[in-house]
Structures are given as C-alpha cells and as structure tokens.
Amino acid sequence: QVQLVESGGGLVQPGGSLRLSCAASGRIFSINAMGWYRQAPGKERELVARITIGGSTIYADSVKGRFTISRDSAKNTRYLQMNSLKAEDTAVYYCNARINDATYWGQGTQVTVSS
User: Fold this and answer.
1) Interval 34-61 mean pLDDT
2) Under 8 Å between Cβ of 97 and 77
3) Which of 5, 82, 95, 100 is the 20 to 30 Å CA partner of 109?
4) How far is the C-alpha of 112 from the C-alpha of 115, rounded, in Å?
5) What is d(CA 35, CA 106) in angstroms, rounded to the nearest whole number?
6) Within a 13 Å sphere around the CA of 11, how many CA atoms are in the beta-carbon half?
7) pLDDT in tens, 57-92
8) Which string of b and e fits 34-73 if b means at least 16 CB within 10 Å?
9) What letter does residue 63 receive in the DSSP assignment?
C-alpha cells in the first residue's frame, strides 16, 4: 500500500510564502506524476501544479509565476513553494500522485491567507 503524507500548511498574511511537502511511502515502483490540487469552500477541486516522471510541469494560470513545484526523487517527496500568496489562494491543498499505475490522495492541508 502507498501513503501520501502532506505537511506545511498554515496561516500566512497576504504576500507571504509557504512551502508544502508531500512524501510518498510504501511499495513504490514508479511515481508517474505527483501534484497538488486545492479546494476552496463552495468550489470544485482544481489542479494547482503537477510534475511528471520526466520533469515536465504544469501550473494553473492563477498561480503561474508565484508557485513552483519541485521534487526530491531520493525521498519520494514533492514540494510546492508558494510565494506572493493571495486571499484567493485560501483552500485545502491535496497531494495527488500516480504511483504504480494507481491514483492516491493525501489527507489535505489547510492554507489560509489572511491579514
């Protein structure tokens, strides 16, 4: 079984930064892609950023230039560096991974941007 453990959420003022981490553990043979989704109250879950096994990245238009996804393959961990945070970035952020041809979700971490 594979597990995803997220960390790094919290409360930050507008313009501030946070870094989220997602660590995968268990019987891992191949991580095809990992990324982050978010869901704000009353809204649908949306893709924030994703990185593939080949290193290709994709970002939501709303976070381009502010968020950066990266990886530490040796640790099976992906990071989401979030800069210049805005109130509209407030949401629960979920790690998502395609591992061993199956899809997994983390438990979610709250990010609140407020003064």
Assistant:
1) 96
2) no
3) 100
4) 10
5) 10
6) 2
7) 999 999 999 999 999 989 999 999 999 999 999 999
8) bbbbbeeeeeeeeebbbbeeeeeeebeeebeeebbbebee
9) T
- CA distances to 30, 48, 52, 57 from 101, rounded to whole Å, are 8, 21, 13, 19
The residue count for the chain: 115
Strand-pairing partners, residue 35, are 50, 96
CB 46 within 8 A of CB 59: no
Amino acid in position 69: I
Q: How far is CA 78 from CA 26, 98, 107, in A?
A: 16, 13, 15
Give me the residue label for tokens 């990324």.
Answer: 35
Cα–Cα distance measured from residue 69 to residue 37, given in angstroms and rounded to the nearest whole number: 12
